[in-house]
Write a structure and sequence with these properties.
Layout (H helix, E strand, L loop, with lengths): L22 E3 L4 E3 L3 E2 L6 E9 L5 E8 H20 L11 E13 L2 E10 L12 E2 L2 E7 L14 E4 L2 E2 L8 E2 L3 E4 L2 E6 L15 E4 L5 E10 L4 E6 L7 E6 L5 E6 L1 H6 L5 E5 L3 E5 L1 E10 L2 E9 L11 E8 L2 E9 L6 E3 L1 H8 L11
Parallel strand pairs: 7-9, 10-18, 19-25
Antiparallel strand pairs: 1-2, 3-4, 4-5, 4-19, 6-7, 8-9, 11-12, 13-14, 14-17, 15-16, 16-17, 20-21, 20-24, 22-23, 23-26, 24-25
């Protein structure tokens, strides 16, 4: 099988002066841009953080068109208003709406993709409030929250890293490891919760192998969440492997953090990749943000959809962004693969809520 490496890099030629350091709002998912006038385009620009380390350190920054960025901020403001209007986070109120996401349109602002809002409705409860077709010029579409077809679909390895086959002792077939992460000072390998459990049971304590019980024994599931579909596997003292590696199979570069929500907007016009044992590397772009999805009758509204091709067996594998900084190749996690469409719960959300760090051993090359 052939693998292709696309050298997509974002060059950063200078650091911002202290007065231009970006301030984060809401744990790094929205940023106030500092406007300046571009001599080449004579348009205002904003500075945004697109990749952030687990401790909050900016790892990639970008200059973007301020008109487009104001559009993004307006869309996110309306998203929050709709979430409040439809009582998305109040389980005592049934409006028939389960989430409000951000999609893409065919329109552009100075070459950048404009966004729309998507209202996700319940399959089990009828819509009880009217949804307008647009608000303040921002289009709104309505979708039913989809049923997720669980993708559980092979190779052995000594040093485990993201993109390798991952399985438990069952007959469902293997999924894929996401990457090495750090939480509360300890190191783990992440994968999807549905890869390492059976029939919606609690996966904690389950033994995990690199491709089934005939493969190398890695360790046990120590913590997990079905809602966001992730599980952390600790290396067992009697494991058959030599350890974890801070990278992704067949990829040049080491993990440098997670893609921020600002970065997800930016990558609607960029390239993201997916690495799974079934499809190997595929590429695409960000299509939708804040999709409502989940498994086992629990949902979260921070899933991300990409246009990358995926198949059964890719579950848990990393969706990621590649970039170059100071001559070093870096990888930033977008989301672990969930299934069905190419979606997964956003890595920035897993960092915000659970303190999971996607840069466990960050360093320049």
């Amino acid at each position: 099988m052939l693998y292709y490496y696309h050298n997509i890099s974002y060059l950063m030629s200078q650091k911002f002066k202290r007065r231009n350091v970006i301030k984060s709002v809401g744990a790094g998912i929205t940023f106030s841009g500092i406007s300046s006038r571009s001599a080449a385009s004579q348009r205002d620009i904003a500075h945004i953080v697109t990749v952030r380390g687990g401790d909050g350190t900016p790892r990639q920054t970008k200059k973007v068109d301020e008109g487009w960025w104001k559009h993004v901020e307006k869309v996110e403001e309306l998203q929050n208003k709709l979430r409040s209007r439809y009582a998305v986070y109040d389980s005592s109120i049934d409006t028939g709406v389960e989430g409000v996401g951000i999609g893409s349109t065919d329109e552009k602002i100075n070459g950048r993709t404009k966004s729309k809002l998507t209202v996700y409705t319940s399959q089990d409860s009828p819509l009880k409030r009217e949804v307008p077709s647009d608000i303040d010029g921002i289009p709104i579409t309505v979708k039913e929250t989809p049923d997720v077809e669980l993708d559980c679909g092979k190779s052995e390895t000594d040093w485990v890293e993201g993109g390798y086959a991952c399985d438990m002792d069952d007959s469902n077939g293997p999924g894929t490891f996401t990457c090495q992460v750090k939480k509360d000072g300890s190191y783990y390998m992440m994968t999807a919760a549905h890869v390492v459990n059976t029939n919606c049971g609690d996966p904690n304590g389950n033994k995990v192998y690199n491709y089934g019980p005939d493969g190398n024994y890695v360790g046990d599931v120590e913590m997990s969440s079905l809602k966001e579909d992730w599980a952390l596997v600790s290396e067992a003292s009697d494991s058959d492997i030599s350890g974890f590696d801070n990278g992704i199979y067949n990829q040049v570069g080491k993990l440098a953090g997670h893609v921020t929500k600002s970065g997800l907007h930016d990558l609607k016009d960029g390239t993201v990749y997916q690495q799974g044992w079934r499809t190997c590397e595929t590429s695409g772009s960000i299509d939708e943000i804040d999709i409502t999805s989940g498994i086992c009758d629990v949902t979260d509204d921070h899933y991300v959809k990409t246009t990358t091709n995926t198949e059964a067996g890719d579950s848990g594998g990393p969706h990621f962004h590649r970039y170059t900084y100071s001559g070093c190749e870096h990888l930033a996690i977008v989301a672990p693969h969930h299934g069905g469409e190419a979606i997964g719960c956003a890595a920035y959300h897993l960092n915000d809520i659970y303190g999971i760090q996607f840069d466990p051993n960050y360093s320049l090359c």
